[in-house]
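Limitations
The C-alpha cells in this dataset are predictions for the assembled complex, not deposited experimental models. Users should treat interface geometry with appropriate caution, especially where small molecules or nucleic acid strands are included. An illustrative entry is reproduced here so readers can see what is and is not provided.
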Amino acid sequence: MNTNNNIYTVVYTAVIVIIVSAVLAFASSSLKSRQEANEKAEVVSQILTAGKFGEKSEWSAKGNDAVLAFYKENIAEAYTVNAAGAKVADLNTADAQVYTVSDLKAQNYNIKGGSDVCLPVYVFKNGTVVVPIYGAGLWGPVWGYIGFEPNRQDMVGAYFDHDSETPGLGGKIKDDPSFRAMFEDKAVDFSDATPFAIVKGGAPAGKINAIDAISGATMTSNGVSEAINNWLNAYKSFLTAVVPASEENQLRGRMMGEPTNAEEE
Amino acid sequence: MANLKETILNPITKGNPITVLVLGICSSLAVTVELKGAFVMALSVIAVTGLSSLVVSLLRKTIPNRVRIIVQLVVVAMMVILVDQFLKAFAYGIDKQLSVYIGLIITNCIVMGRIEAFALGNEPIPSLLDGLANGVGYGAILIIVAFFRELFGSGTLFGFPVLSAIGYTNNGLMILPPMALILLGCVIWVQRSIQKDLQEK
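Predicted assembly:
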C-alpha cells in the first residue's frame, strides 16, 4: 500500500486524531469526579490547617472523606461578602462548598480591578474565621488561607500554597511549618499603612502585624505579603465590623506590642 | 535472546539517555530537588516511553512517512495526558508537586528519540522493552542526582530527616538547578572513568 498518497495521509491523520481525542475524552470524563473530589478536599484541608484544626500533612494522610467529614461537622457557616463586608450569598456547608483556586484567581482580578468582589468567609463553630488570599509569587501564583480568632483581628494560623516557587527557597511558604507558625500570635492592624507586613531582614521585635521574610526568597515573600495586604484590605470592612471586643483586642495587641519594643530599645 | 538482553541493558548503561546521549537534561535538572518527586517522575517517564514505543511500533507499517513525527507526537501527547490525569485522580499531592513537569514529558527528547530510532523499525515487544529500559536508564540517573541534592540540600531523604537530624546546615546551592548540572557532570565523569570505551580519543 502506498502510504505516501495524499488522501491516505489526510485520512490517516484525521482518524488517529479522532481516536486519540475519544480516548482522552473518555479518560477525562471518567476521572473527573475523583479529580474534583481531590481538589475540594485539598482546599478544605488547607482551610482546616489555617484554622488550626490539625496539620495539613495529617489531613492528607487521613484522606478525603475524613477531611470533608470533619469540615462539615465543625463549620458553622460559610458565605461570601462584598467590599462593604455585607453577606452576599451562602455557601452550602452540607456539601462542603468552597472557593477553588480558580475562583480565588477570578476574585483577585476583581480586587485589583475594583469591580464588585464576592469573597468567601468560613466561620467555624468555635468562632474561628478563615479567609483566603491570592497573589503573584516569583514564578507563578501563590495563595493561602489565614485563620482569625472570633474578634477577626488576632490570627490563629495560616497556610500557603503555590504553583511553581523554587523548592527549598520560595517553596518554604508551603513546606516549612515554621514559616506559617509565625502567623499564630500575630494580628492584622488596619490603622497601619500596611495591615500586615513580611519584612526582609527580620520584623521589628514585638511588632504585632509583621513577620520575618524567608531568607533567599525575597520575591516570594514580597508576593505573599502583597497578596495578604490586597486581600485583607478587601476584607477590611468585614474584619473590622465586629463586636466591640475587637477594639478591646486591638488595644490589647498594641499594649502587648509596646513593652517588648521598649525592651528592645 | 542475546539481542533482547542488549536492548534492555544498553539504555541503562552504555547507551544511557542522560549520561551518554545527554537527552532529557531539562527535566532532570528540574525535578531532582526531592527524591519523592524524582521517583514519580521516573515512573511516569517509564510508562510514557514504554507505552508510546509500543503503540508506534504497532502502527509503524501504516504511518505515512511524511507526517510520522506528527503522528508520533499525537501518540506521545496522549500518553502524557493520560499519565497526568491518572496522577491527578490517584496521587493528587505528588501531581501538584511535579506540576508542569509531567506535561513537559511530551518535550522530553528521550521519548521521541527512541520512537524515531527504534520503535519505527522494530517489532512491538522489543520496542516496548526498549522504551521501558530507556525510561529506567533516565529514572536511575534522576534518582542518583535527587539522592545527593535532597541529602545535602535539605538534609532529608524521602522527606525523613537524615543529615538535618545531626545538625547539618543545609547547602542552598544544592537545591538550585545549576548544582544539578554539576552533579550530572560528576555522574558522567564517574561513568566514563569506569567504562573506558565511552571516552572519546
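Some entries come with short summary sentences. For this one: Chain B has a mean pLDDT of 87.
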